[in-house]
Amino acid sequence: MQSVTIQRRDGVAKETRPETAHSVITMSSVEVDSATAEAFISEKHIGERIKRLRLKRSMGLVELGKHTGLSASFLSQLETGRVIPTLRNLARIAMVFSKDLSFFFESEPVSLFRVHRKHDRMRLPQSGVDDPTYFFESMGYMVPDRQLDPYYAEFLPVRKTQEIRPHVHPGFEFLYVLEGELEVRHADAVQVLNPGDGVYFDASTPHSYRCAGKESSIAIIVTMHQTATSQPAYNLRPLGAPMSIPNQAKPVAGRPAAMPTARAVVNGNAMQEKI
Length: 275
Prior knowledge:
Layout: E1 3-7, E2 14-18, H1 21-27, H2 34-43, H3 46-56, H4 61-68, H5 72-79, H6 87-96, E3 124-125, E4 134-138, E5 148-155, E6 167-168, E7 172-179, E8 182-186, E9 189-193, E10 198-202, E11 207-211, E12 217-224, E13 250-251, E14 265-266, E15 269-270
């Protein structure tokens, strides 16, 4: 194994150490050919990034040229990858769009696309009750930082001894019935939905579901995390009466009837949180 000699700044002391891959790269003279450099720049899609910034501002090549001092023809060749920009020219363009130079070299975000196979989903019971009236499966547990939560839910025929518990959570909810009859209660409003029917509502108002037929009801539920700000969460009280939440309504953050959040999913396996 070869050794590398290192000269200290004072010119006096020296030391040697075994040569490593890191020392070869950082301390040896390495010549990078122009083809490799061009390939590196091409992989960053600098021209495409410049074009997207320009079009986002509804700016033409001539206008961008006036701001940067570069000709429209040069900018056109730059966007199509026919010329390689110098750092000076790239800095001029970056300043026009209030971007740092690093913007053109950072990895581009990957467009989100996640498939959830039926056999990969976990069936979970309604939480907070000993005798669940429905089961659900998260269809978005693999999506990080998601803005909505989709669920596949099966509502079982209700026995007389079972209690239907209203619940609330921030945001909005959409429910679409695939099979069977499903009764949806929203505050004092009650509607029976049939296959093909859907309902969109403010989820900060107490709501509940109940299978209205002798056979199970299947539905797709989507909860959205946006919080309603245009009106109070509970506005159905008599004028002058204090605002209150019914005793049976149990607030649950971000999901219908304690459906799991992203934190409840570890390594693809949904685990129910305590509420």
